[in-house]
Every structure is written in structure tokens, then in C-alpha cells.
Write a structure and sequence with these properties.
The chain is built from 12 helices and 13 strands. The protein is of the alpha/beta class. α8 runs parallel beside α10. The protein is elongated. The two termini are 40 Å apart. Belongs to the glycosyltransferase 2 family.
Length: 333
């Protein structure tokens, strides 16, 4: 078996048939579709059972309510494919998705995970923030861009990825706990040197409903993301600098930034200075105006500014000053 598509589902009676049909109608045929019903209480199970008679590539498994990470790990355990593709019950895979992603992994043998561009299917006015996020991830395509942007936000739509099965055995599968299981996996595998990229084509329609798990579950709260990224940031800095860690400067100030920086302090990292756009009467020089930045090479900047316009201005300014992303600074929000 070339590909195993793993689709966990909980109470998705209104969308599950569409999601399954989008996989069964793929132009690439050498796959199995493993649906893991995570304790649904609506008509989801009956719908999937009915569809199993249509195509013997569709397999249904049942779990008591355990959560998406455990359902995913179970689905991977039950699978047999060389490649594992993710799919969600809310979404729709375009007909050439599996074909293009398989061809990419077959051709790029040094790449461990491949994603794609995604089309946002939701209310772009009421859900402007999410729509903007989708626009952003569609600009992060190459392996280098994914490496550098990994700490800003999760660079992938989870149901858009396909990865090599052996990575699960080598570096572990989804971590079960109070955390965003997909983002933690990307950061862990990237830490271990797994190259990731995207097919530069729209292969998934990402449907955004008010009841979508990533909108409502506490595991996907902003602070959970910052806790996870702080842990892997510390590992990243150790990889880059060893024991000779340069002074860490944080670009940003205020209550929100302080709340997010506290995770770094809890991990034993020391912040030397804060960079701000405001002129401050700070005799201890704890805060420094951005126009007083020294030349790159003797410090490392962590930018926690979350305003998208502000982030773009900071990226441009640091580039003009000779700072290189991933070498001299990282965007953390």
C-alpha cells in the first residue's frame, strides 16, 4: 500500500460523507482510507458504515471518546501505507491531492513531510483572523521558509499534510496531552532535522465552522501554542549556539508580551533587553529604542509583536540593518 489516509471523526454527520467522497474520488488509486470514529453520538457511524460497502479501501474503526491525538495514533497504527496522509471530516481534498503529494515525496527523497496550499472556506468577515492566517500559511512554501517561520505560527493546515511513515517510528507520533498536537509534532520533527515543504498548488478546501475543534478546544488556546513553541525555541537555541548563548533581546513590550516571555523565563532563559518603538526614560536601559539596535552578530532577537502590519515593518527594518532571519532573529508571533 502506497498511502494510508487517516481521518479521525467525532460527530460530523453533516460533513463526513463529503470528506470521504473527496478521498475516494482521487485520481491516485493506491491508498486506504482509515476512519477512526472517536465516540460519535450522532449519525456519523451509520454514514461511514454505509459507505464502506461502496469501496473496500475504506476501513472504519471505533474508539471510546479519547481525543484527536489518540485517534490519530491509533489510525496510524492500523495503517499499512508507506506514506501517511491526514484528512479531517470537515474538509475536502481536491482530486489530484494524493497524486501530487506522492509524486513530490517520491521525487524529493530528502523531504519528510509535504503539505500544500489551501483554500479557506469560511466567513472571511466574521472569521477575518482565521482567513488572514490561511493567507499567511499559503506564502510559506519552501523548506527554508518553513524552518524560519516555524515559531511564528503553525506553518501548515493539519489535514493538508502527507508524511513518511518511518518518521513516526523514528521520532514519535502525536503527543497526547493539553497541547496543539499537530504544531508540537511539526516542531519536534523539525528539531530532529526533518525537511518539510509544500506543493505550490491548492489541494485542500479548509472549511471553518464555529464548532471546529481548533476553535473551541482548550488544547488550541494561544497560550498552549506559546508554551510549546517556547520549549522548542530553547532546543533550537541550544542547537544553534551550544552553551555560548548570545544575549536575548525581545522586540515588544506590554502585558501580552510579558505573559508570553514568562515561559522562556520558566525554562531558564534570560532576557537581556526589550526593544520598543516608544522612547522611554529608562536609566537602567532595560528598554531600548529600535533605532539604537547595534549591528548584528552579538545578540539574538525574538520578535513577539503580533500585529501583522507591525511584523512586516520589523522584518523589513531588520533586513535593512543586516539581520538574517533564523541566524540573528526569529518571529515568535
Amino acid at each position: 500500500m502506497k498511502v494510508s489516509v487517516v481521518l479521525p471523526v467525532f460527530n460530523a454527520e453533516s460533513t463526513i460523507e463529503r470528506a470521504i467522497r473527496s478521498i475516494l474520488q482521487q485520481t491516485f488509486a493506491d491508498f486506504e482510507l482509515i476512519v477512526v470514529d472517536d465516540g460519535s453520538t450522532d449519525n456519523t457511524t451509520r454514514t461511514v458504515q454505509r459507505m464502506t460497502s461502496m469501496d473496500d479501501r475504506l476501513r472504519l474503526f471505533h474508539l471510546s471518546r479519547s481525543g484527536i491525538a489518540r485517534a490519530l495514533n491509533f489510525g496510524i497504527k492500523m495503517s499499512s501505507g508507506k506514506y501517511i496522509a491526514r484528512m479531517d471530516a470537515d474538509d475536502f481534498s481536491l482530486s489530484t491531492r494524493l497524486k501530487q503529494q506522492v509524486e513530490y515525496l517520491d521525487t524529493h527523497t530528502d523531504t519528510g513531510l509535504v503539505s500544500s496550499l489551501v483554500r479557506y472556506k469560511g466567513d472571511t468577515v466574521a472569521r477575518e483572523g482565521y482567513a488572514t492566517y490561511v493567507n499567511w500559511i499559503n506564502t510559506i512554501i519552501t523548506s527554508g521558509e518553513i524552518q524560519h517561520k516555524r515559531f511564528a505560527e503553525s506553518p501548515f493546515s493539519h489535514p493538508s499534510v502527507m508524511f513518511r511513515r518511518h518518521l513516526v517510528h523514528r521520532f514519535g507520533g502525536y503527543q497526547e496531552g493539553k497541547l496543539p498536537e499537530d504544531y508540537e509534532l511539526w516542531l519536534r520533527w523539525l528539531h530532529h532535522g526533518v525537511a518539510m515543504a509544500k506543493v505550490n498548488d491548492y489541494l485542500l478546501e479548509w472549511h471553518d465552522y464555529p464548532e471546529r475543534l481548533s476553535r473551541n478546544h482548550s488544547h488550541y488556546a494561544y497560550e498552549r501554542f506559546f508554551l510549546v513553541k517556547s520549549r522548542y525555541l530553547k532546543l533550537y537555541l541550544k542547537q544553534q549556539f551550544g552553551k555560548l548563548l548570545p544575549p536575548l533581546w525581545v522586540w515588544g513590550a506590554g502585558r501580552v508580551v510579558n505573559n508570553r516571555v514568562r515561559y522562556l523565563k520558566q525554562l531558564g532563559l534570560t532576557i537581556d533587553k526589550f526593544i520598543d518603538v516608544k522612547l522611554r526614560n529608562d536609566k537602567g536601559e532595560r528598554f531600548i529604542h529600535y533605532t539604537r539596535l547595534p549591528a548584528p552578530g552579538n545578540l539574538f532577537i525574538l520578535c513577539y509583536v503580533s500585529d501583522r502590519r507591525g511584523k512586516a515593518d520589523i522584518l523589513q527594518y531588520l533586513g535593512q540593518k543586516g539581520y538574517n532571519e533564523g541566524v540573528d532573529f526569529l518571529m515568535m508571533a
